[in-house]
Specification:
single chain, about 200 residues, mainly beta, 5-stranded antiparallel sheet, 4-stranded antiparallel sheet, 1 helix, flat
Length: about 200
Amino acid sequence: TRDGLVTQVRALNGQALVAAGSTLTEGQLLVTGIYETRDQRTYTTHSLGTVEARTWYELSVSVPLEITEKSGEKQERTAISIDFGKKRIKLWGRGSISGANCDKITYYHPLSLPGGLRLPVTLVRETVTVYEGQTVRRSREQAQKEGEALLLQQLKTQLDEDAVVTETRFSAAVEGDSLVVVLQAECLEQIGRPVQVQAEE
């Protein structure tokens, strides 16, 4: 699945084409089920195996040094609507507008007849609180800490559950109003995946 340096090969069936210490490139065949006997006859079997390797990743993220925070001043807007199935009809107010400086809370009140029979109608009340924003410049340390957390999360999404991160190194540099954080990571992971290989006639 990616470039790496082999640390262990387990060929449970078939023939291993690589060994510990081999340098691999993405797309390389690792274990084959097609092999020849001494009398030059070709046989095909369902190969099974795993190949563990050291792999390397380099990821980067740009973190803004200036951010907008909510101030104490705020305005509230409320809107009342009715939902008929998937259709919404606004009755009063403007509450659907939201953005980075807004908090939106939606309350749903299903309507029922006496006796508990529920109607296909829901009363919806939306409350939007709009805050005044103020620009704040945070420290390089704060921005780098956020960038490192984002990069570690990004690395985690690219690895299988059994993969192990063996080493991480971070670096950072200011570019304009942003801090570019770079992660260099070394991992130990199983990089083989099953593919179909057609035997030549």
